[in-house]
Specification:
- By secondary structure, this protein is an alpha/beta fold.
- It has a single domain (5-198), classed as Aldolase class I (TIM Barrel, Alpha-Beta Barrel).
- The protein has helices at residues 5-10, 26-35, 50-60, 74-82, 95-104, 115-123, 139-147, 166-170, 186-191, 194-205; strands at residues 14-18, 40-44, 65-69, 88-89, 108-109, 111-112, 128-131, 154-157, 178-180.
- The chain has a four-stranded parallel beta sheet. Strands 6-7-8 form a three-stranded parallel beta sheet. The chain has a two-stranded parallel sheet with strand order 4-5.
- It starts with a helix and ends with a helix.
């Protein structure tokens, strides 16, 4: 059954932002995160194996909702959808990417950082957005400020979110979830320490 963007944002309090450098890490990493309670996984298209990793996780990790991040143009959008991405995340948004994303029917989480960007997306009927780069763009005070005139928007702050500030973000009325990579840093992935990644995922899943 197809997921909606609300499903994506409300399934877990934290969406792992995954940078996969080696294809053989894809399935055990995803299994560790899902076992810890984080079922929504964002595979960033920052590495040569990202699309193959997405395909493999979809095929071999039951229960995972697998999306693609770092979607920056219609080419990466098409490639991600062809690979089976169940949702799409972009760091920002252009008119062509927004139009293509909405036309695709695949749940879209476009990145914004200013009220004007939020309003342009709202004109298109978009009410779920990624706030990126969260900490660099004003963090919690900025989201509180945007929430005053634009309370109908729900955000997924990403960028600088960590175990210490995540609960503060999640306490905001206009934040549905946060995105981060602290559960699966490169050193743990390279070491194959899936047990520690599962432990961190369980801590993250318990935040809200």
């Amino acid at each position: 059954m197809a997921v909606s963007i609300n499903d994506v944002m409300n399934t877990s309090p934290v969406i792992p932002v995954m940078v996969i450098n080696q294809l053989e890490h894809a399935v055990p990493l995803a299994q560790a995160l899902v076992q810890g309670g984080l079922k929504v996984l964002e595979i960033t298209l920052r590495t040569p194996v990202a699309l193959d990793a997405l395909r493999r996780i979809k095929a071999e990790v039951p229960g995972a909702i697998v999306g693609a991040g770092t979607i920056i143009n219609t080419q990466t959008l098409d490639a991600a959808i062809e690979a089976g991405a169940e949702f799409i995340v972009s760091p920002g948004v252009t008119p062509s990417l927004l139009d293509a994303g909405l036309a695709s029917g695949v749940p879209l989480l476009p990145g914004v950082v200013t009220p004007s960007e939020v309003m342009r997306l709202l004109e298109k009927g978009v009410t779920a957005m990624k706030f990126f780069p969260a900490e660099a763009a004003g963090g919690i005070p900025m989201l509180k400020s945007i929430g005053g005139p634009l309370p109908q928007i729900k955000f997924c702050p990403t960028g600088g979110v960590n175990p210490k500030n995540a609960p503060q973000y999640l306490a905001l009325s206009n934040v549905s979830c946060v995105g981060s990579s602290w559960m699966a840093p490169a050193d743990l992935v390279d070491a194959g320490d899936w047990e520690e990644i599962t432990r961190r995922a369980a801590e993250a899943a318990a935040l809200k």
